[in-house]
Amino acid sequence: MTAEQLAAIAAVVLSLLMSYVPGLSTKFGNLDATTKRLVMAFLLLVITAGAVGLSCAGLDQSFVCSQAGVWQAVQVFITALAANQTTYMITPKAKAKSG
Predict the structure, then answer these.
(1) Looking at the 3D structure of the chain, how many domains does it have?
(2) Which of 39, 53, 48 is nearest to 78 (CA)?
(3) Using one digit for the tens of pLDDT, what is the confidence trace for 61-88?
(4) 98 in a domain, yes or no?
(5) Is residue 95 domain-resident?
(6) What angle, 0 to 180 degrees and rounded to 10, lies between the N-to-C axes of helices 67-90 and 33-56?
């Protein structure tokens, strides 16, 4: 599996967690659309940076610790972000409780 495929899977799982986990989905659902996008982008950035950090520390082989590796990480981040946002758009949203 490529780094892009793993990142896309992680992004989809993150989106599904935010949509379906009780409590988390409610808190996330109460945020405005821009904040939701920023939260998801930040979490994916942290995951991508962590993967690069692990590679540079010699604990993982996902990325080469070089300028080319950083460029690959940027591409992986963009792929993950696209997968995440697409998944979130197609998952059902919690309905606001009345009363």
Answers:
(1) 1
(2) 48
(3) 878 888 998 999 999 899 889 888 888 7
(4) no
(5) no
(6) 150
Asked whether the CA dihedral 13, 89, 32, 28 is positive or negative, the reply is negative
Which residue, among 47, 51, 52, has the nearest Cα to 14 in the 3D structure?
Answer: 47
Q: Terminal CA-to-CA distance of the chain, rounded, Å?
A: 49
- Contacts of 84 by beta carbon, 8 Å cutoff, 6+ apart: 11, 12, 14, 15, 40, 44
Predicted confidence (pLDDT) per residue in 1-56, tens digit: 677 787 888 888 888 888 888 888 888 888 888 898 899 899 889 988 888 888 88
67-74's contacts with Cβ under 8 Å and 24+ in sequence apart are: 72/3, 73/48, 73/49
Residue 34 lies in a domain: yes
| Helices vs. strands in the chain: H and E counts, helices first | 4, 0
* Domain around 71: 3-90
Going by C-alpha positions, the residue among 73, 99, 98, 96 that lies closest to residue 7 is: 73
- Whole-prediction pTM value? 0.78
